[in-house]
Amino acid sequence: MAEHGIAARVGIVCGSRSDFPVMEKAVELLGKLEIPCELHAISAHRAPDLLFRFVGGAEARGIRVFIAAAGGAAHLPGVVAAKTILPVIGVPIQTQVAGGLDSLLSIVQMPKGIPVATVAVGGAENAALLAAEILALSDPELRGRLQAYRDAQTRSIEDDETNADLRGER
Ligand code: RP5
Fold first, then answer.
1. Strand 37-41 vs strand 88-93: parallel, antiparallel, or unpaired?
2. Which atom number of ligand 1 is nearest to the Cα of residue 44?
3. Beta-bridge partners for 102
4. Which one of 103, 120, 143, 159 has the minimum C-beta count within 10 Å?
């Protein structure tokens, strides 16, 4: 699924549609930063040929970063990384078995040679921000939007009513 009708720069792939409620937070944040993305549900073990087709054609379509989310024996991000030289960010999805520790270890413990940048369990927003930071290296306008996002985040904490006494020290 392509978002915004223009060439996507971030390719988000989930092992299952059941991961979408988590990963839609990444889609939303990328949208706020005006970064076009596409979202797919492709299981690495149930549809490996389709996954290879998706990854193989992505760079030509404009994709520059992948975000891959999976739960359990979460090999999807590693398999995506094996088939591309573009950066891959892995998002471990929470599970019933070990609260997502199984997913986290499956993604973060990549043996050397093929890196996957791993965020926290359910860390869809940080995955989106990390993808934005990578894209911003060669996109000064995006860098400006990212800085504005950060500044607004900081301001919202400074403006919290519990911090009223500290405001004069700004
Ligand atoms: C993984 O197994 C998916 O990424 C999902 O997190 C988990 C459960 O998948 P379904 O039972 O929803 O197919 O492949």
1. unpaired
2. 14
3. none
4. 159
Tokens representing residue 3 in the block: 């978002």
What's the 162 CA to ligand 1 centre distance in angstroms? Answer: 41
Distance CA 75, CA 103 (A): 9
Angle (nearest 5°) at CA 71 between 13 and 45:
65
pTM of the model: 0.94
CA 107 vs CA 68, 100, 156, 160: distances in Å: 10, 11, 33, 36
pLDDT in tens, 55-66: 999 999 999 999
Total length of the chain: 170
Give the DSSP H or E segment for 70. strand 65-71
Ligand 1 near 70 CB (within 6 A) = yes
Is 71 near ligand 1, meaning CB less than 6 Å away? Answer: yes
Is the beta carbon of 19 within 6 A of some atom in ligand 1?
Answer: yes
